[in-house]
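---------- Forwarded message ----------

FYI, see the Peptidase M20 domain-containing protein 2 record below. Original note from H. follows.
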Amino acid sequence: MDTAARLKTLSDAAIDAAAGQLAELSRDIWSHPELNYEEKHAHFVLTAFLEDHGLRPQRHYVVDTAFRAEFGGEDGGPNVAVLCEYDALPELGHACGHNLIAEVGVGAALGIKAALEEALKEGRNLGKDSYLRVQLTLPILLKLLDAGAFRDVDCSLMAHPADANMVDASHASASPWHGINALDAAVIAYSSVSCLRQQMKPDERMHGVITNGGVKPNIIPEKAELLYYIRAPTLQARDILATKVYACFNAAATATGCSAMTSVYRDNMARYGVEEPPADHLAWKQVASSDVGNVSHAVPSIAPVFAIGTRDMPHSRGFAEAAGGPAAQAYTLVQAKLLAATAIDLYCTPRHVDTAKEQFEKYTREGL
C-alpha cells in the first residue's frame, strides 16, 4: 500500500471514530439556526469541538462569528484550507444544509490531522511542511479575503449538500455569480436566456424564474438563485438546449478554472462509491450561488455538491428536514472522507498543487 492510500485509511478511521460526535455537532447547529453575522452559537460549538480535537482555533477571526483553526508543521509545503459555512436562512432555518457543510469541514479536518500526525511520526516532509487551515467562508468571505486570510493558502476545499452529486470547480453552475452583485448577475443570466428563444425550435420549451434575489433592498445581494425547466421532444435536443442555457449562466460571471484539483477529487470518488448523475439530470437542475467563488479568484478551489438522500431541492422545508435528519449522516461522512482524501493526495503529490496553480494563473491572466 502506497503512502497516500495508507494515510487515507488512517483518515477514514479518524472520521469514523468521531462519527457520533460529528452528528451531534451538526444537529446542534441545525437546532440553533442563526442568520449570517449572527452565528454565535455555531461559532462557539465549532471552535470548542476543534479545540477538543487538538486544532488551534483563533476565535472571532476578522469578525465576531468567524474563526480560523490550524494544524501542521513548519511553513514550506502545501497549505490546504478546508472551508465551513454555518449560517441559516430567514424563516427556513438550515434549508441550505450549512450545518452539514460545517460537519464536512471539521470532519475532513480530523481526517487530515490524523494523516499529518502519522507523517510527522515518520519524519515525512508532508507532515513537517504542510498546514491544514479550517476557516469560515460565507457570508463574510470578502472580509476574510481583504484581511489576507488566504494569503498563505495554496488551495481550498469545500463541499455543499444538495439533492444530487455534482463535481466542478467552485465557479461552475452551482456558483456562477461570484464577485459581483448577485442579483445583477441573475438578471443578466435571465435576459441572456430569454434571447435564446428566437433560436429555439417550435417544439422546445424553456421556463425560468428568479427564486431568490436578495433579502433587503439596501443590502447588496450575496446570493441569487434561478430555477429553470427545459423541455424538448428528444434527450439530444434537450441537452443541446441545456448547454446553451448553461453558457448564459457562465457568461454572467467572471470565473476561474481548476481542473487539476477537480481531477484529484474525482479520482477519489470511486474509493467511496460516489457517482455523478447522468447529464440529463442537470438539464433541469436548480442553479444556485455561493460566494465561495470569490476564493477561486484568490487560490485554486473546488466546491463539489453532494447528495444527502432527498429529492427535495435546497431552500425548501423538505430539504431543511433532510439536513437535520439521520439519513444525511452517511452521505456527509463520505464527503468528509472525500475532501480529506483529496487533501492527502495534494500533500503526497505536490505536483497536483503546482499544476492547479499554473491553471489558476492561466485562467486569471486570461480572464476566463
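H. also flagged this: The two ends are 40 Å apart (CA to CA).
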